[in-house]
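Thread: "does anyone have the structure for this chain?"

Original post by V.I.:
We have the sequence but no experimental structure in hand. Need at least a predicted one for the grant figures.
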Amino acid sequence: MDNSYLSALNVPETNHTQADIEEQLKRYFGDMLVYKSPSNSKFFSALSLPSFMRDWLVMRFSDSEGHIDKEEVTSYVKRTIPKKEQWNDFQVELLHNNQPVRFLTKVKIDFDTANRQALFSLPEFGVPQKKGEAVVEWHVIEKNRDYLLAPTEVWGIVELLCDLDDSGKKTIIKLVDFTPFCPYTIDLEFYKEMRQYFSVGEWLDVLLSAIDYNPAGYVTKKQKLSMLSRLLPFVEKRINLIELAPKETGKSYLFSQISKYGWLVSGGSISRAKMFYDISKKTPGLASRYDYVAFDEIQSIKFTDAMEMQGALKGYLESGEYRVGDYRGVGDAGLILLGNIDTEKMNVDQNMFSDLPEIFHESALLDRFHGFIRGWDIPKMKESLKANGWALNTEYFGEIIHMLRDELVYRAVVDELLELPKNAATRDTEAIKRICTGFLKLIFPNVTDVSKLTDINEFITYCLEPALEMRRVIKRQLGIIDYGEFGQSMIPNIKVKEEYLNACKDL
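Reply from O.Q.:
Generated one for you, tokens below.
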């Protein structure tokens, strides 16, 4: 492959300004924009709200210039989005005053087959304390079937009241009304279509500002692309990645704040039951409930049943299936290992994985991770890297990238474009294709057919070459860790089919 394409990524971009991009965003995405600023971020951070909730509030309480009424927002949040300690106040209203309460929170629906009941839980408040204490009225389920029956917790405004169970002896909490937190009508086809009005460089900046970063704080396209590679599990199912980076590069923020469909495990311990399936509770784990599961500070995470977890991870990372006892489950969540790395270890030609938990020291497991993110290519967080201007609303963008996970046409485009060498290892080709598909969704969402790709060199630069490099690092680490098995192996020489390269030359 001609690496001259990649060299273009290291050239500072000077052909557009933030003002130019903001003008285009206003022209094509007007209603989905929000004004982001470091001062607003600090204000909402103090309210302990994720980015997707923040942007919704900014849109609701800001004027045409993006200025927000902070007093009004504070009052609304206190009234509508309570903190955990306010649950006692709600209980007074429910139990003593016999009054309903309404507020915005996360809800999870389960079912009690024996008693033919729909149950709910409020994870933010530790409700219920005992099974059967929190019951959903069936009309609420019917009214919000598609939304409430999602495998993950969902955001919405709940209305609760106290009542007696069917026996008339036991007090229960009933969910009698529910309004989904879905403030926008998402038109994915519109989003795809609007991409054509932006150059690649402009679109990279659009994506960065959508996830709360200031594109002007990045020197090169390579830095921008490295940052955006963190979004691959947001748009493509079951992409498994390892990222090692210096501290303060924004790993935790992105995986915890941008999407309500992901889960960040921050230190502590994790069990097979939590990750896959809890036999005692008969409930699926994180892998079946979220778009991705990110293990933050991976060096400090403990695995309570290490050997069982290792075996379960092998099966899941390979096929998306897992077995716990007699239970056989499936999941679409990608697994991301996030760890810190010292300067002296930022070298792909030495063992960078030695500080990972022992279960990840086995080459057979590491081979199932598709790619590696060089976190040291991403600038450390500072004020100049925080978004400051008009950008895509994070809640809107989070819904878009979640919806892109179900779009199969992009993999068909990748399959059509790429030529695979004979006898190429399946894990390598699948890893490269999966990452390549993820980049295509992110950077070229309008390319839903090969005919819509106007520049094959851009596909090579922004999709294929990054995918090859991310897999190449994994392969190199495998060769260091297990030289006997992987020492002489290389990634396959996957390239664009000659017919498409020639077609590009003829244009």
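V.I.: this helps a lot. The chain has three domains: 84-180, 217-384, 407-506.
O.Q.: and Residues 84-180 form one domain.
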